[in-house]
Amino acid sequence: MLDELHEECGVIGIYNGENVARNVCMGLYALQHRGQESAGFAISNGEKIRVRKSMGLVSTLLREHNVDELQGFAGVGHVRYSTTGSSTLANAQPILISCKWGQLAIAHNGNLTNAAELREEMEEAGHIFQTTSDSEIFLHEIARTQAPNLKEAIKKAISKLTGCFCMLILSKDTLYVARDGFAFRPLSIARLGNSWCVASETCAFDLLGANYVRDIQPGELLTITKEGLQSETFTQKGRLAHCIFEYIYFARPDSKIFEQSCDKIRRKMGKQLARECPVDADIVIPVPDSSTTAALGFARESGIKFEIGLLRNHYVGRTFIDPTQNVRSQKVRLKFNPIEGVLKGRKVCVVDDSIVRGTTLKILSKMLRDSGALEVHIRIASPPVAHACYFGMDFPNAGELAASSMSPQEIAKMLGVESLGYLSIAGMKECTSAPSDYCAACFDGIYPEYIGKEAGKFSCG
Amino acid sequence: MLDELHEECGVIGIYNGENVARNVCMGLYALQHRGQESAGFAISNGEKIRVRKSMGLVSTLLREHNVDELQGFAGVGHVRYSTTGSSTLANAQPILISCKWGQLAIAHNGNLTNAAELREEMEEAGHIFQTTSDSEIFLHEIARTQAPNLKEAIKKAISKLTGCFCMLILSKDTLYVARDGFAFRPLSIARLGNSWCVASETCAFDLLGANYVRDIQPGELLTITKEGLQSETFTQKGRLAHCIFEYIYFARPDSKIFEQSCDKIRRKMGKQLARECPVDADIVIPVPDSSTTAALGFARESGIKFEIGLLRNHYVGRTFIDPTQNVRSQKVRLKFNPIEGVLKGRKVCVVDDSIVRGTTLKILSKMLRDSGALEVHIRIASPPVAHACYFGMDFPNAGELAASSMSPQEIAKMLGVESLGYLSIAGMKECTSAPSDYCAACFDGIYPEYIGKEAGKFSCG
Amino acid sequence: MLDELHEECGVIGIYNGENVARNVCMGLYALQHRGQESAGFAISNGEKIRVRKSMGLVSTLLREHNVDELQGFAGVGHVRYSTTGSSTLANAQPILISCKWGQLAIAHNGNLTNAAELREEMEEAGHIFQTTSDSEIFLHEIARTQAPNLKEAIKKAISKLTGCFCMLILSKDTLYVARDGFAFRPLSIARLGNSWCVASETCAFDLLGANYVRDIQPGELLTITKEGLQSETFTQKGRLAHCIFEYIYFARPDSKIFEQSCDKIRRKMGKQLARECPVDADIVIPVPDSSTTAALGFARESGIKFEIGLLRNHYVGRTFIDPTQNVRSQKVRLKFNPIEGVLKGRKVCVVDDSIVRGTTLKILSKMLRDSGALEVHIRIASPPVAHACYFGMDFPNAGELAASSMSPQEIAKMLGVESLGYLSIAGMKECTSAPSDYCAACFDGIYPEYIGKEAGKFSCG
Amino acid sequence: MLDELHEECGVIGIYNGENVARNVCMGLYALQHRGQESAGFAISNGEKIRVRKSMGLVSTLLREHNVDELQGFAGVGHVRYSTTGSSTLANAQPILISCKWGQLAIAHNGNLTNAAELREEMEEAGHIFQTTSDSEIFLHEIARTQAPNLKEAIKKAISKLTGCFCMLILSKDTLYVARDGFAFRPLSIARLGNSWCVASETCAFDLLGANYVRDIQPGELLTITKEGLQSETFTQKGRLAHCIFEYIYFARPDSKIFEQSCDKIRRKMGKQLARECPVDADIVIPVPDSSTTAALGFARESGIKFEIGLLRNHYVGRTFIDPTQNVRSQKVRLKFNPIEGVLKGRKVCVVDDSIVRGTTLKILSKMLRDSGALEVHIRIASPPVAHACYFGMDFPNAGELAASSMSPQEIAKMLGVESLGYLSIAGMKECTSAPSDYCAACFDGIYPEYIGKEAGKFSCG
Ligand SMILES: Nc1ncnc2c1ncn2[C@@H]1O[C@H](COP(=O)(O)OP(=O)(O)O)[C@@H](O)[C@H]1O
Ligand SMILES: Nc1ncnc2c1ncn2[C@@H]1O[C@H](COP(=O)(O)OP(=O)(O)O)[C@@H](O)[C@H]1O
Ligand SMILES: Nc1ncnc2c1ncn2[C@@H]1O[C@H](COP(=O)(O)OP(=O)(O)O)[C@@H](O)[C@H]1O
Ligand SMILES: Nc1ncnc2c1ncn2[C@@H]1O[C@H](COP(=O)(O)OP(=O)(O)O)[C@@H](O)[C@H]1O
Ligand code: SF4
Ligand code: SF4
Ligand code: SF4
Ligand code: SF4
Ligand SMILES: [Mg+2]
Ligand SMILES: [Mg+2]
Ligand SMILES: [Mg+2]
Ligand SMILES: [Mg+2]
């Protein structure tokens, strides 16, 4: 499934290291799939924090700035999700400010559900806003809080937030790490020699050679100083609400997400799907790369041969010729090419991770058929997406979701395929270790928390 | 005199016009000499304000942004002075914020003398700062002021400021214009068809074909709406303190500054200099272009022939090869070339507008002598600069000012010239219409107003 | 296997089409894997040929030039291979010249083995060279040939060339297509509505929706005019010498190469490898993406489970932080990440397409072991590369080829793996339809043609 | 007079120096007024010649390339004139080629009158052209000439050229310098320590601190090697034909042109003009900067006061907002602003260097009048331009020249001025030392040499 979901963001923080800026950027490379709109990092040398940001990929950041120019012992980095409209450098992260607590740099992944209320209240109280990101709201909250010290101010401030957030706050000498009480998004900590490393996904640790220690706890505020770690709990919700969609699509399969291997869960989902929706097909093929693992699981469980029937072009990125007729179709063809030899005369079962709008799958199905597939069966390794997400994922409006207005049969017809099968909600949850610890609101409509007004406005960082 | 003084900033605002963005940028071209570090403009279409900024010249701004993309009926523009160090896009103007009064864009020329106190107080009160510019302080002040409406908030806010400021504040429907009570920097208003145009210098009006109406008054807050102008006085100081250095160097000679033609005053200063410091020379030459007018006056009064003995290269800008030995000297030679035929065998009187460090004049004097000048006499159309400016001009530290530690004789020796003469302070003031209305603190050390702590930190905008 | 082989080039030509420039660029996207150094296209409108080129990827070409600006009815495009040193825009293709035959644009994929002799002879005869590419040599040859018309001149000129070439020559009204007599590199023709499309690989046809017609014949000169195709044979060699390495690594698996599906051959090689070098392992994993097909074949034949144990990062491109220690290792880690859950406690068989230097595989093997692989067995779906290529592929110097100085056992030891197996030369050839029609010189040292002096200097285009 | 004349080119060569690339670029800064379209340099280290070029100003060249990267002992540089249409990097100079004489880099200022014939002949003989510049023709001629050595080849080759040229040809060990037999354009040589420096204008020597030695002789080929200079004469024309327009407008006044100070001649022309066309005016003002010297001469001779009544903006360059109505007028207003205080109530005599189309002067005249000038009298320090130039200057087509279809009275009327006076042809010539040594064809229509077909196509370099 492509181009239909916008990722949230990715964050990384390193404390007490060498070549901090360089390592932060390496880590951002590993998190790049979580955001392609802008990238940035902020480094403290103990005296002063400095920041560098660019629109675009981490590779652009590295081209536009000399990464070795900012020397320091601690740093935070951020990749921001990609949308079209309002993308400006002002909204890129980390945001660096100065306030009564000195300089603070923030890198934030998430979406506050009470952002609008907080912002209104703050404007009323005389604050000014220079960006449209949630993170600025939070910075105001820290800055205006009456507290004996910065840590207490952060604690008070995050207590007021609802929604989902993974926050790294760098002061000139300390790195604060906070995760919301539902623990919607992944956030882990690792050890790299004498330094600490915090990141959205553990694949960043692998790249840096850091050793995974544990996940940040729900409602935990971690304070990292030269003296070491200090942990406190600032909130306790009655339950957890890990985003199950991380397993389905967002996270990289090589990451350990919510303390479980993403790859393993994704594979289980493929197997469960094979059990729930068996198919009579000659081959199973994935829509590469995000559904490859699930397809492998499906093939294993069903006993049907796994094949590579669609090739993913390595070079299709953002830059594209101006829209004309057939552009969407051409974009899909640029990204994927069917392998006739694999498909011709076969009954093909295509496994994809999810269906959002369904436009891509519709084009792909036609391409498969044009390449000689006798039948096209689609199996989706997740349930129908039918509701909005208010916790960091940028789904299209409910109206555009295929499953909000169509039954699976209708969707199958729209896609022009022989059959379509979705994983069940229960089946999906059972692939995880503790089904009740997960949010599945976009599937089942059960939101773990009250959603404030205007919360629909997605905002990462 | 070159490369030794950093200009302050230039501002322009247009209300109720057509092609507002385009005209704002044209106006910025005319104000470019007031700031070459960054340029920007903000345009309101009545619903929303949008902003575009670039590091560098107005020509870069026009290359990087499509000026016709931002349609609207009112706009403000800004060129920022050039320093080396801390120049970042974040500090570029206009600054656009959102607060309880809605969106506000500010373009500001000046230097607040109580910026540090205000900032400290605000940080204490919980505000955050994303730039290091004075303008952000002022925006906070407006945002946090309790007042029945935006105009009252602005009035209250500017009443707290000390120092020098010319401010344009654009809300989505109104343009507010304010000038400090001493009226340090020039700010005028003109009529262009049905629209109003406010600018730092009247040369911008000439370019746009707008008709000069009057100067903004000291301590005046002007509110420009669809209904027209509304004027109020928010402060009254006992005296005026126009910056006399505007006449000497800053302003373009074709501008009407403080209601007088800059060219006329500059010429008078040249004449007065000729009376005060006569010279026995064959020719009078200017250091082009800033001292040309004074040199013409000197030549006229003294009866000595005016000549062009130094050529100014049209193409020497910011980009320069990396420093090596002799770079400063090479930089001067790149900018100016002596004309041997004019100089050879002549006793040359060089008129310059001012001496700050004296390094350029030292190199120029040697160049003149190498080109065959028999004698080099220097006449400066202003008194010795011996004190810091806290009102918007970026002098070097007192320690680097030639006149702070050397007598004119010593300076003449350092420059290696036959004689050196400065205009007297009294003589300078008498060239203006009302000597007591001017600040001359950098010459005489008499500051019109109490200077707060850290005020020395220059900040334009 | 990555970063050790430089691809040759890719060419495309379209005659009589609509949106020719746009379609040429789309086609180049599909050929991007054949060259990432520069991209370009030339378009004829019947009156005049114009050219656009950029250093970098097709996406850069599209960003730097307005592709719709060049309207015309015929065009040629080119992507050039990537090396570090001598890459300049001057060497980018197509090259556009003017000569007695009018304007000619050339796009060329290959390597002339008598380039040095021809160039020397031409310089002697008074010609000048502005690039270091073989194509310029050929253009000179056309220009200086005495012939009744351009077609005859081309025919005479190509008769003098030895080595490998696929050439597209665009005059203002005609497209000439030529392929060397050994048919080293792939070149095919397709029909798209009323237009003809010629390209290095058929995956470009798929993207454009063009229908494959046939391959250009060995020694064929095809003349495409408004009247249609005209075919002639300009040379006949006693044999064919298709580059077998196209199947192994170069070509995209979804292309039909030398009239056979690349994917099918690659799969057969994987199966044959499994038969020749069986392994005792729990899982088979590819080094994605180029060896995935062979690994699938290996897994199928051996009955060992196919798994994805290495993830390929979608975002690792050219831009990289400056070299420091461990850079090569970090570069490999950036590109590939092991999935611990798949590898831990398993005996792993890694299938790769080829070994050139072996440096990447060495790092990968260590990464696999660090992720818990109990044993690492390597199976290479091609024989040891031990000789230079003079026909369009940029191998490292013989001295750097692992297999030129080490036996497989020694290489296994160097790689630090339990076992290493290569496909046999005979086994490899038997996977093709007609073993004797292929060049395998880099494996067996049997060059199909005399190699001139200095021919080692690789030159694509 | 502005924007109506395109300069030719400027060349510089340095042999045997240190920091050659850097010094070549410094010299190009001084020659920038001779060409603003592209800039480039080529450096030999004795083994190899390398080249760097950019579209735009020397400042762009320095920004885009690291000037210290190319180390060597000899180099040539070039600035190319500015036109709109066909400007491409391919046409930028120096052009670097390889031929039987090895690598050659050429920097060329001029215009060959037999270019079309030569090119046709060469294409017939089998040569290919990759640019549209005359220099490539010349390089072909050198390359194809049968001669015992490079010097003889150059000698033979330049003997075939007609028209005007100043050529620098750098081989890996030698710098060749040639000037056409009429010596149309200036070219001089200077000594800088142990090195030789050749440049279009002596102002480049001043900047580098080099000492002027002499002009290159008409028809001279100078060979500069480690052994020193060797001079030969390759052609002898019956007469000289220095371009008199160099004095009038092209050259910088601080240069010694044709062994005379440009400033002196320009001043004499101003005086002569005052004698020939007296005026009843209160003030004399120049159109800065190119007519300032002539205006000073006019003022001196006439006894009328010299004033600065028009200010030239330092920042108006190439970048400009897209054309709309009134653009030309706005462009003039951007470049020049009248000083009302100087003009109001005065009878103004404006001195300009020449009239080509007259459009700028028309706008300026109106601006002066709008600023209160009572009368506007125009005096032109050259005769009416009525004929095309085929020797390196890019005049508009004859049809667009004001003087080709209008009498001075009619032009005065078109300009809307009280009076208009031109310098006479005889008067102009008498200001030089040897009137008969000059070309004045654009004034008097007497071309020193036969003009070949298509010669009208201007081509610098
Ligand atoms: N190499 C890979 N193999 C399998 N899945 C991957 C790989 N890289 C990324 N993914 C999955 O695909 C998702 C989207 O990746 P991305 O690189 O942005 O590509 P897409 O264009 O398909 O959205 C990731 O979040 C991850 O789940
Ligand atoms: N064309 C001109 N003629 C005379 N004076 C000028 C002109 N342009 C600018 N100036 C004066 O020179 C000052 C500095 O101008 P600027 O263009 O920045 O050049 P500089 O490099 O000399 O500082 C201006 O503030 C103005 O007083
Ligand atoms: N999506 C794909 N799936 C399988 N093989 C591919 C794919 N894309 C490219 N290849 C193969 O890998 C080779 C190299 O591809 P390239 O994109 O340049 O990546 P690499 O960085 O691995 O060299 C191609 O020539 C082709 O054989
Ligand atoms: N500083 C100067 N003073 C006087 N004349 C100059 C100066 N610089 C250039 N010129 C003259 O003006 C001509 C054109 O200069 P250029 O910088 O291109 O400006 P323009 O835009 O006026 O054409 C030069 O060839 C020279 O004769
Ligand atoms: S609504 Fe869906 S995407 Fe959003 S957090 Fe819940 S499971 Fe994740
Ligand atoms: S101190 Fe000098 S420069 Fe500053 S405002 Fe006063 S007169 Fe102007
Ligand atoms: S030597 Fe090898 S790479 Fe080269 S053409 Fe022959 S088989 Fe292909
Ligand atoms: S025609 Fe005019 S511009 Fe051309 S060379 Fe002769 S005098 Fe110079
Ligand atoms: Mg994605
Ligand atoms: Mg200045
Ligand atoms: Mg590759
Ligand atoms: Mg010019």
Q: Could you give the distance between the termini of chain A?
A: 24 Å
Most extensive interface: B-D, 57 and 57 residues
Instruction: Give the count of structural domains of chain A.
Output: 2
* Protein structure class of chain A: alpha+beta
Biggest beta sheet summary of chain A: 7 strands, antiparallel
Backbone CA Rg of chain A: 22 Å
CATH topology of the largest domain in chain A: Glutamine Phosphoribosylpyrophosphate, subunit 1, domain 1
Organism (chains A, B, C, D): Hallerella succinigenes
GO biological process, one term (chains A, B, C, D): purine nucleobase biosynthetic process
GO molecular function, one term (chains A, B, C, D): amidophosphoribosyltransferase activity
Function (chains A, B, C, D): Catalyzes the formation of phosphoribosylamine from phosphoribosylpyrophosphate (PRPP) and glutamine.
Task: Describe it.
The structure is a homotetramer. Chain A is α+β, with helices and mostly antiparallel strands. Chain A is built from 16 helices and 24 strands. Chain A folds into two domains: about 10-240, 4-Layer Sandwich (Glutamine Phosphoribosylpyrophosphate, subunit 1, domain 1); about 265-435, Rossmann fold (3-Layer(aba) Sandwich), CATH 3.40.50.2020. In chain A, helix 4 (about 135-145) packs across helix 5 (about 150-160) and helix 8 (about 260-275) crosses helix 9 (about 290-300). The longest helix of chain A is centred in the middle third of the chain and has 15 residues, at about 260-275. Chain A is globular. In chain A, about 60% of the residues are buried. The mean pLDDT of chain A is about 90. Chains A and C meet through helix 1, helix 2, helix 6, helix 9 and strand 18 of A and helix 1, helix 2, helix 6, helix 9 and strand 18 of C. The structure holds adenosine-5'-diphosphate (4 copies), iron/sulfur cluster (4 copies) and magnesium ion (4 copies). The site of one iron/sulfur cluster (SF4) has 11 residues of chain B, from helix 16. Chains A, B, C, D: Keywords: 4Fe-4S, Glutamine amidotransferase, Glycosyltransferase, Iron, Iron-sulfur, Magnesium, Metal-binding, Purine biosynthesis, Transferase. Chains A, B, C, D: Its EC number is 2.4.2.14.
